[in-house]
Amino acid sequence: MLGCMTDPGMHEIPLQGGDVSDGVVRVGDTVRRPMGPHSELVHRLLGQLEEADVDCVPRFLGIDEQGREILSWIEGEVAGRPWPDWVADPERATSVARLLRRLDDALVHIGLPDDTAVRSWPSGAPEPVGPVASFLGHRHVAPENTVFRDGRAVALLDFDLTSPSSRVDEVVNLLLWWAGWMAPEDRNPVFQGVDPGERGRLLVDTYGLSDEEKEWVVPVAISAAQQSWHWMKHRAEDQGGGWRRMWDEGVGDQIRRREHWLVAEQDALRRTLMEDLPETHEDVEHRDGGSTAVSTERSAGA
Ligand SMILES: Nc1ncnc2c1ncn2[C@@H]1O[C@H](COP(=O)(O)OP(=O)(O)OP(=O)(O)O)[C@@H](O)[C@H]1O
Ligand SMILES: [Mg+2]
């Protein structure tokens, strides 16, 4: 697969979506992305997901003559910037929670590779808290990395931030992007009128965390904000590029404000997440069908 040639007749269409990778392009039915130190891990993981018949991620197709990774193009709708209003739509958000659950079930089954058995954290940051990491999570479930078809999330792109995770780590990342879990002044305008606690509960219940895992959500969110500040600072200093750009634009202050908001709201958020919702017919069907996820219909109306 190495050294796949690009047909000279195929032109490259620049793709924008994230903040970090410059030079992501579409070529026909493929995407070409610059590689980094993490790429080998990502390629191995995408290969394992393909073997497991998981169809909600791009396929890794090889490396082109310019040393870029080749991924399959996934047709659908992805939020650009500024975010469209539908990013705050509860049906869209619950479909992302269900998709993440499906992906994580496969990732849990694959487990951690032998050479990545421990969770690492940047020097200077406090030790992360929460359940033990048991799989390589996606950890960047941003709207720009989520593909929709017919209003439903069907695929997650961009595994560059994959790292040893617990289900709680994944859900905390989900809440950051799809429940507006950050300081009110930093929340995207589309989240105006969305209650982060209620939206958080909807997504946590749709994903289907156990009560014990739910208790961890707020402490892990606070811990993740602390980690994130240090990661961003290190990446800005060591890797520069988009990381430096984001740091200079004040992402560090934004992360600190997120941490302070979470600390100030922790009791209220925990209470909201732990509240029991009444069961509906759909829940019973889901449960009897072997799924722990809660239905959108009930949750969306909750
Ligand atoms: N395999 C794919 N199928 C469909 N669209 C894709 C695919 N890969 C990328 N895209 C589109 O290109 C955009 C940018 O791609 P990607 O997320 O891989 O890079 P990036 O976000 O620029 O990188 P980073 O997050 O590291 O800054 C995405 O938001 C999406 O719109
Ligand atoms: Mg991206």
Task: Summarize the structure in words.
By secondary structure, the protein is α+β, with helices and mostly antiparallel strands. It has two domains: 2-72, no CATH class; 85-301, Aminoglycoside 3'-phosphotransferase, Chain: A, domain 2 (Alpha-Beta Complex). 44% of the residues lie in helices and 12% in strands. It has helices at 39-51, 90-110, 167-178, 196-207, 211-238, 241-248, 251-274, 281-288, 296-301, and strands at residues 2-4, 13-14, 25-27, 30-33, 60-64, 69-72, 135-137, 146-149, 152-156, 163-165. The strands form three sheets. The chain has a six-stranded mixed beta sheet, covered by helices on one side. The termini are far apart. Residues 290-302 have low confidence and may be disordered. The site of magnesium ion has 5 residues, from loops.
Task: Draw up the topology in text.
Elements: E1 2-4, E2 13-14, E3 25-27, E4 30-33, H1 39-51, E5 60-64, E6 69-72, H2 90-110, E7 135-137, E8 146-149, E9 152-156, E10 163-165, H3 167-178, H4 196-207, H5 211-238, H6 241-248, H7 251-274, H8 281-288, H9 296-301
Parallel strand pairs: 1-5
Antiparallel strand pairs: 2-3, 3-4, 4-6, 5-6, 7-10, 8-9
Bound molecules: adenosine-5'-triphosphate and magnesium ion (MG).
Adenosine-5'-triphosphate binds at residues 15, 17-21, 24, 31, 33, 58, 71-74, 78, 144-145, 147, 157-158, 160, 242.
